[in-house]
Every structure is written in C-alpha cells, then in structure tokens.
Predict the structure.
Amino acid sequence: MNDTKPFFILIVAIAIIILFYKWISKRKKWKDPTGLFPAKWKKILIEKIPFYNNLTLSEKDLFEYKIQEFLANVRITGIETIIDETDKILVAASAIVPIFAFDEWQYVNLDEVLIYPSEYNSRFETADGEGEITDENKRNILGMVGTGYMEGKMILSKNALHHGFRNETDKKNTAIHEFVHLIDKMDGSVDGIPELLLQKQYAIPWIDLIHKEIANIFSNKSDINPYGTTNNAEFFAVISEYFFERPSLLKTKHPELYEMLEKIFNRKMAGKMKKRTRKIRRNDPCPCGKKEKFKNCCGKAA
C-alpha cells in the first residue's frame, strides 16, 4: 500500500500540470487599452459605482485602466435593446469589482456579453417575446454564464444590470453575481471553489462554512438570499454580492464568511464603503481634472 502512494502523488501532480498548461494554452492575448480615460466615463463611475467612489486616487486610476482594458477586449451587444455607454461601463465595473485586487487578471474565458432588455427564459425569449412558452423553459432568468455553443458568452438582463447599482442596500447585484460564476469557472468547473483565488488550505473550511450557512438558511436563521441554497456555486455568487454590496453588515452578521471572502478576493471591504454615488451637477468641478466647471468643460457634450 505504501509503495503506491508516491506513484499516486506523481499522477496527481502530472494531472495538475496538464490542466494548468491546457488552461494557459486557451488564453487569448488581451489588447492593451489606448488613449485617455474619457471624462464622460468617469462621470458614470462617480454617479453609478459606489466601489469606485471609495478608492484612493491611485486605485481609481487602476480601476479606470481595467475598465478600458475590459471594454477593449470584450464586446457588449444589445439583443432587442439599444446599448449606451452607461450600460457598457456598468458591465465592465461589474467585471472589475471582484478581481480588482489581482493586477494581472484578465477574463480570457469571455468574448462577449449579451444584454437583453429584461428577464428571459431558457430559450432566450424575453417577457415580450413571441413563441410558445412551455413549463420546462418558463424561467425568469436575469443573468447566466454561457456553456456549450454559448461558451465564452455571458447574458444579462438590462433591467437587472441597472437595478444592481441603483439599489445600494439590497445585497444583490446580478452582474457581479454572474462575473463571480465566471471567476469560479476559470479553474475548469463552476463549483463554488475558486481555486485560482482561494489558497488550498482554505478550501475545506470554505466548503464547511457553505454547508453550515445553507443549513441556517433552510432553518430561517439567516438573512442570506435563499437562492444560495441551490448549490455551492450559487452560494458563492450570492454571498459575494453581499460582500461587495453590504460588507460591514456581512462582517457583523457573518464574521466567518466575511473573513473567508476577504481571503478569496484579497480585499478588506468592511468600513470602506463610506462614500456612496453622487450626481455631478452643472456647476461641479469637471471629473476630467481640469479646473473648470462641468458645464464649461466635458458637460458641453453631455
């Protein structure tokens, strides 16, 4: 029995190396962003993204770079709806928030984000769509990560995308939820264990925490979204929404979960979200950095 142990370890090591190089080989070369970050994009970030407003100046520069990089490499396509710059910035911000602490992170497993006007079903029909709706496909889907022939694509509801940033207190953000699934998928499986972010020694404690909290949800002893009981992957996505939307509340009510999510996302969030979004008025300083009022600067084109 002991003689087979080194052989088994060798086989596992080889398998891991093969999977790693297989993943590396699939990586596409991301283009670097070009040009300055547009002031009108900065205005959208200030007015829509609380996470951005709570960053330091140097962190804001990095966030803006990552937004540009994402949009230079991932298409945002409207299906039965018109997509504007706000929609694109909200999608990109949703992608950047969870991986902001990882400088080299790129969504090499994503080519395109499809935006539907509202919720849709498993046949990708919207509420206003035509066609027969059967029991098996009558689902109110707000977002999903594509598989099979939809590999490399994400689908989001435009309504849910905007609601996720409009309501800053409900512990829900559909777009962040779906990007967390995509992060989870980067190691080859969507199982609630983001192996590229979570150090190996924390994997079992993390699974134990998931099962413990799912039991609490079933017993009505938790304020976590019940959708998290679906499986480990959905719990990870749901609790990540909570972490980025209401971190201080999560730390108070679920300190063990909060601590583990700090390790996963490599970022302390509690106490950081002090500044909320704010509307830029005509007489406010222009967000482009020039010593001009917004109405006399970038606001001329708004």
Observations:
- The two ends are 73 Å apart (CA to CA).
- Residues 120 and 129 are 9 Å apart (CA to CA).
- The domain at 37-292+295-299 is CATH 3.40.390.10 (Collagenase (Catalytic Domain)).
- The chain has one domain: 37-292+295-299.
